[in-house]
Design brief:
The protein is built from 16 helices and 15 strands. It is an alpha/beta fold and about 425 residues long. Helix 5 runs parallel beside helix 6, helix 6 runs antiparallel to helix 16 and helix 10 crosses helix 16. The two termini are about 30 Å apart.
Length: about 425
């Protein structure tokens, strides 16, 4: 199989799946796109033009694709969170291996269904935990795996979600309601972080979790006096508002464009006037951030206990001025501390010599490598993940970052059980035998 490219179909032709699939244009000898399933005709047409597909390679649904004789080695599933399992089950039953976007399920019931189907079909399922593939995270894991800080006794992670990311995704956007998107905020935004924690404790199971959080900021009673309902229609204070849709989406027209202007996808090169009209009418991103229908938390704290006694914490804070992910691991012989966006971490060790307290090494991570810049983002993580997926399907050796379905379950379990702990105000056990 290594002598020919892995063949794949795209299921859900949105931003993430198209990013991974574009590896086929960078390395046609490694990956070949041979089909697409998406309910939107113009998206099917877009993929057909990119990859030279004919009418018999275009499908409206995953079910329609799965009903045909298997036409590829694998499927790249980038559907919405609530559709991941529903669309994956027929593909697994039809013989496809999967590259599946995270979170791969929106509740435990779905999670177990997917695991059962993958095991029953002996399918290969790789999860898109792209943060693992950033050079920063990979380098930290390599140091931990090499035993440089001894046995890990504490993992502390913090994610500051920027104000513009918070409102585009979780206040105005498509992850703003747990009852609609299916995913709690913790899973929709932080499953990378929970996966990072379990990755650093690889092989050691989490056993208990507690959590606290709420939506403090983006509620009707917190709206400034005089605020309207749509920024560019009836709001007299729009000019002074930090969350003005004009300031977020017109003054920054390319920021989050694949979310904000999705309703204009059928217009070739929409103008600023088209975009302003959209924000004034039916575009959900034109709404006042304090008067949306959101019901997910804007901050949440999680505490985890592992079976070896290690503890971990994760804090998610939405609405921060600057986006940032920070990590601090303390082991029995040293510690690692760094910030993802800085691509730098520090290794410290105890140093009891006279006049000393600790030794410290600063590690500047190479964010380029030999493939960064080819396409995508996440500090080069997108291209590395796509390359690893090819190896994963072929059965070749994969990188230390590769995440199969069973690797990903523990992080998902923490997220699902943490939400139960938060909502019910109790410590919740996490199953270890599955």
């Amino acid at each position: 199989m290594a002598s020919k490219p892995v063949t794949a179909v795209i299921v859900g032709a949105g931003h993430r799946s198209l990013t991974y699939a574009s590896y086929a244009r960078y390395r046609p000898d490694a990956l070949k796109i041979v089909g697409v399933a998406d309910p939107l005709e113009y998206r099917r047409r877009q993929v057909a033009e990119l990859y030279g597909l004919g009418p018999d390679q275009l499908f409206e649904t995953a079910e329609e694709l799965a009903a045909r004789p298997q036409m590829a080695d694998a499927a790249i599933n980038g559907t919405m969170d609530q559709d991941h399992v529903r669309t994956s089950l027929p593909l697994l039953n039809a013989g496809y291996d999967l590259l599946l976007e995270k979170p791969f399920a929106v509740n435990e019931t779905e999670m177990w269904q997917l695991l059962q189907a993958a095991r029953g079909n002996a399918s290969k399922v790789m999860i898109c935990h792209v943060m693992r593939y950033t050079p920063f995270a990979t380098a930290m894991r390599q140091r931990v795996a090499a035993g440089e800080i001894g046995e890990v006794i504490s993992v502390q992670t913090v994610e500051h979600v920027s104000y513009h990311h918070m409102v585009v995704g979780y206040v105005r956007g498509k992850w703003n309601r747990k009852d609609v998107c299916g995913s709690p905020m913790l899973m929709a935004k932080c499953c990378h972080d929970l996966d990072f924690i379990t990755w650093m404790k690889s092989g050691v199971a989490p056993v208990r979790v507690s959590s606290f959080g709420s939506n403090m900021q983006f509620r009707p009673e917190k709206a400034p006096e005089g605020a309207g309902t749509r920024c560019l229609v009836d709001c007299p204070i729009e000019g002074d508002c930090l969350y003005s849709a004009r300031k977020h989406y017109i003054d920054h027209p390319e920021r989050w464009s694949f979310y904000v202007w999705a309703g204009l996808e059928q217009i070739e090169n929409p103008t600023i006037e088209d975009k302003i009209h959209s924000l004034k009418t039916d575009n959900p991103f034109g709404r006042c951030v304090w008067k949306c229908d959101n019901n997910v938390v804007d901050h949440q704290a999680v505490m985890i206990e592992f079976e070896d006694g290690c503890t971990a914490t994760h804090n998610m804070i939405g609405g921060a001025s600057k986006p940032q992910r920070s990590m601090h691991l303390v082991g029995t012989t040293g510690e690692l501390q760094g910030v993802l966006h800085d691509s730098r971490f520090v290794i410290r060790h105890i140093d009891p010599r006279p006049g000393h307290e600790y030794s410290e090494e600063v590690v500047d991570v190479d964010v380029k490598g030999d493939m960064d810049g080819a396409f995508g983002g996440h500090g080069g993580g997108d291209v590395r993940l796509a390359a690893d997926f090819v190896n994963f399907v072929r059965g070749d050796e994969c990188s230390i970052a590769c995440t199969n379905l069973e690797d990903s379950i523990r992080g998902h379990l923490i997220g699902f059980r943490a939400d139960v702990a938060m909502e019910e105000g109790k410590v919740v056990d996490i199953p270890t035998d599955w």
